[in-house]
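hey so i finaly got around to running the thing on Glycine N-acyltransferase-like protein from Synaphobranchus kaupii. pasting the sequence first so u can double check i didnt mess up the copy paste, my clipboard has been acting weird all day
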Amino acid sequence: MLLLGTEELKSAEHILKGLFPESIKVYGCLFNINRGKPVFWDVVADSWPDFRAIICKPKQQSIQDYLDRERDWNMHHIYAKDKESLVKLLGTSGVLDWSQFTLLAGVDIRHLDAVKELAVCNNTPTKMGETVFVMTLEDASHLKGPERDLASGLSTLTTAHAEMVNSVWKYESSKSSYNSVVSYISNYPSLCVTAEDGTPLSWLLLYHHGALGRLYTVPEHRRKGHARLLLSTMARALLEQGRPVYGFVEDDNDASYSLFTSLGFSHKPDYRAVWFQLNPR
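ok and heres what it spat out for the 3d tokens, dont ask me to read them lol
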């Protein structure tokens, strides 16, 4: 196991860019680390410079300093070229604490059986989380400009909106997730559609790993084109800035899948990512 330093992180970002979509989540982590964003990961690889597996893991010394959802869930972001390399890195001393709750965020579904076997060898109970399509966008050709009456309501979120955004988080609403929302809004692009009084009716954020997320519309304002407007506008801006443009869609969420594909997002047919828990809560 090698802990990557500043120059290695820059080189790894460049290498991972050529390995999309499987590498895009770790690439997004490194993209933000290398641009000075306030993230709290150590990045480890199985070898250097010809790595085959790479993991972003929370810095243990910072967990008590500022507890957000990533550290509360002990998220490990993963990329591996093959299951053997992934298992070898996960099994290396110091990479995982097999007695602690851990969320392996984004395991290639083709590698999952090997990860399960490794957990059994470590007497660690497991639980399957969501299985998702990784939807990526390469160009803006399918992104139409917004209608003038809709675009007039576009704005950005502020930290004053964090409580509202956090309150409708579908998986949890806690102090740690609230801290994450504040960090997303403070450090990354966000968009919202507002009412005349400035109250957000629909919004979209970016996660620390660069994925589009927290797309939500207040129920009574749905089916008015707000989500399409937010995705199109944000995607176009990210492409212009050279950022990765991608999001996760659960494999049974037909509405979101249709929305993303209608805007030109696509996924690799045989690739899915799995959120996989060790020592599930």
